[in-house]
Queue: 2 jobs
Job 1
Amino acid sequence: QVQLVESGGGLVQAGGSLRLSCVASGRTFNRNTMGWFRQVPGKEREFVASVTWSGLSKAYANSVQGRFTISRDNAKNTVYLQMISLKPEETAVYYCAAAVDEAGDLSIGRVLAWGQGTQVTVSS
């Protein structure tokens, strides 16, 4: 089993930036695709970004394309999400996720493990 621990959330003004980190441990990290989701109370958890083991294949939600950048450092077992030009509507708990395998897509049904979540609050 893989364990994921996020950090880097906090309070930021609209237009500001944050970098989230996710440290993975356990034998099942391997070549798994990794990614980020976010969720606000009363709404469904939504996909934000994903990256394959090589780091060469990335996917983003349309709403964050051009502003968020996902990356991973396999030597450090760490995945990052650099977020710029943050908007108030992006206030949410952000969750790190590990897919069941190395396939490029990362849907909720293909998540093997979740992090505990880190709160991102964007003030207007």
Job 2
Amino acid sequence: QVQLVESGGGLVQAGGSLRLSCAVSGSIRSIFSINAMGWYRQAPGKQRELVAAITRGGSTNYADSVKGRFTISRDNANYTVYLQMNSLKPEDTAVYYCNADLPGGTGWWGQGTQVTVSS
């Protein structure tokens, strides 16, 4: 198993930027078994949705709503995944969650970090 801790959320004006961090911990065996990492978000009354993902091979995928504005990256040396969010909009307001995809379809989640974008 792995443990995920998100940080970097907060209140920001529309057009501003935030960088979210997801610190990954656990056994080396578990950490290096991760197939992909992703950022999800959930707004009040809505289903959790995938925002961005990065695979073990480095391929990335983004929701259409954030393409060109958000960037997912990783620092393998520090076991950290980032989500750089630029040109934020009020509709980006949500709780953002980090996810790790392990073999067998096992998913692990962080506790979430609140992002609020004001107009």
